[in-house]
Design brief:
The structure is a single chain. A three-stranded mixed β-sheet has the order 1-2-3. By secondary structure, it is of the alpha+beta class. The longest helix has 16 residues. Helices cover about 25% and strands about 10% of the residues.
Length: about 70
């Protein structure tokens, strides 16, 4: 699970799968928010992110910026 660094006021923030806020504890759940209160196709989206990260890591460090 990718670990996000330098998140203001938080440590241990990761990107992972899940379906509701109860699965999160402050981490980012990847997926589609097409149903209010749910995250759908989380595993599919995580696999896409993981594949992209693996490819990018061969080039060096990977930086992800989270914006509003």
């Amino acid at each position: 699970m990718p670990l996000l660094l330098n998140v203001p006021h938080y440590t241990g923030v990761r990107i992972h799968t899940g379906n509701t806020a109860a699965d999160s504890c402050g981490c980012l759940i990847c997926g589609y928010n097409t149903v209010k209160g749910k995250v759908l196709e989380s595993r599919k989206c995580y696999a896409m992110i993981d594949e992209w990260l693996e490819k990018e890591l061969t080039k060096g460090k990977v930086y992800i910026t989270i914006t509003d």
